[in-house]
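pasting for ref
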Amino acid sequence: MALQMGMTLRQETAADIPALVALGDQTWSALYGRTGYVTAELLEMGLDRPERDPERDDPVIFAGDRLVAGAMLQAWPPMTEVVCPIIVDLDLSPADRSAAIDALIVALREAAHAHLTGADATLERVFGLSVPTRDTGLRDHVRGLGWTLLRTYFELAIDLTDGSFPDVEWPAGMTLRTFGDAAVVEPAIAVMTDAFADHHGDGPPPDTWRHMLTADVVLPDASYLLDDADGPVGGLVSSNLGDGEGYIGPIGVRRRGRGQGAALAMLRRSFHDLAAAGFSTAKLDVDGENTTGALGLYEHAGMSVRVATEAWVTPLHPT
């Protein structure tokens, strides 16, 4: 479906960030009764991501001079799963909203194909959108295209104001360093790359990890590198994404350190440190089918599901 009269698509610029934040707040308020996950800090970090093609990867749509939709290509080699965040104004007419969704899909798929130039054509790949479960219009639209549900992701949160979370008990033989020591960044990149190697889809490459672990939003005193007798074994990064809540992510433990309570200990330490820093809430995102049982771990730590999003996908083949 072609864009309706008066609607135009172009690439996002830094000047669009306030309008995207406003659209996110408007959408999340309608869907969930609170401000949105789209913050200026998050968008600024996205525009600076090292794998980004500024000519293709961040399409936005305007109706006249009003921003009504936006999306981001989220893709790392070998691009077996390309699932893109998207936001489309709920107040558009059904026809205009459908046209905007279709236009973003076309733009994102073209961007994905550009990144796949010279890629291994034998790999099975999927392309899709991250759909808030309460956005039934968007979900019905992609289902109508014949797309299928890949998996569900959850945002979990915990109230930090009552101080009821337990004290930290560190696994025997493990010690902690914070990102206040700049020397932890490179070993933390190696830990995260290793820890996420066996997860669904594609893990960020080292340059992207470096970007995420050194961004201005990272809270060094609430971000950690955990060591055992053989060296760095786990890590957790906390950030201030500008919405008044502490964000925990990523958190990972190498295989040799799993099953000893390392992730739970880092998580509880982050609760204490985020509360001490003045945050009333800590939140994180998790794949509902995480292969390490992370969802259960977070719930055991006292966090509860607040928002769910679904990855709806269709096959993606190099051209």
